[in-house]
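Reviewers asked in the last cycle whether our approach scales beyond single polypeptides. To address this, we selected a multi-component target totalling 264 residues and predicted its structure end to end. The input consisted of the following lines:
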Amino acid sequence: MRRSVDFRIRNELSEIGIVRDALDALGRELGIPMKALSQLQVALDEVVSNVVKYSWDDGNKHEFLVRITVQPTRVDLEIFDDGREYDPRTAPSPGPATPGQRPRPGGLGIHMIRKLVDTFAYERIDGRNHTTLSKECSVGSAVQGSDK
Amino acid sequence: MSNAALNIGQVRAGSVCIVTLAGRIDSTNANDVMAELTRLIGSGEKSILVDLGAVLYLTSAAFRALLVATDEAERQAARFALCNIAGHVRELFEMGGLLDAFAVHGSREEALKQFG
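The resulting structure, written as C-alpha cells, was:
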C-alpha cells in the first residue's frame, strides 16, 4: 500500500486548511494512528506556514506543491516551492521559556518540527526548495480512535 | 473551512470569564483566538481562564497567540491562565518548552479555586 496525493495551493494561510483536511481524510481512510496524525498535522502546519510567510516577499500570488505520501510504516510530507532559497533547518532554536521572560517565537515552529518527525530534510533542486518531513508510524494497524 | 476546525466558546463563573477552545488551533485560525482573547482583556475582564480540554492539537501559531494574550493580560493587570491540558496537547506544550511560560492549572475547578 502506497498512496501519494498532490495539492497545489496558494501562498495564503487560509489555504493550509486544504492540506490539513486532506491529511485528516487520508488518516481516517488508511488508519494513521491518532497521535501520529495529530503530530503530522502540527508539523504540516509549521512547514507550510513557513513557506507561505517567508518564501516570497514580492506581495504577489504564488502556487506551490504539497505532496502527502502514506506507506505502511511511514508518512512523508513534501513541499516544493520556487521561492527564495532557504533551508528551514537553519532557523535558530528558541531559548528556554521562563515566566516573565517569553520565549522568542521565531524558531518555535522549526523546533516543533524537529521534535515531531523522524526526518527533516531540505535540498535546492532546479531553482526550487524541496523540504521533506518523514514520520515513522504503523499505518493501517490502528483503528481510528482506539489508541489514545 | 478554518472556522469549522475550531470553536471558541465562552462561559462565566462568577467574576471569571472562561474561554473554551475546541478543535484544532493552527495558522489558519490562531489569529481568531488572539483577537478574541485580546478583545476580552481590552473590554476590562480581569480574570480569564482558557480551557483547552477539547483541543485536538495546537501549533506554534497557537502558542504565539496565547503568549501575546499572556503579555497583554500582564499589561492590563488581568489574571490569565490555562487549564485542562492533557494527552497529546500536553506533549506539544512540553515539546515547545512552554508549560512554564503560562499559568497552568489541572482542571477548571482547581483553576477557579486559585482565582479565588
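Helices of chain B lie at 2-5, 30-42, 60-75, 87-95, 108-115. We regard this as preliminary and will revisit it once experimental data from Aim 1 are available.
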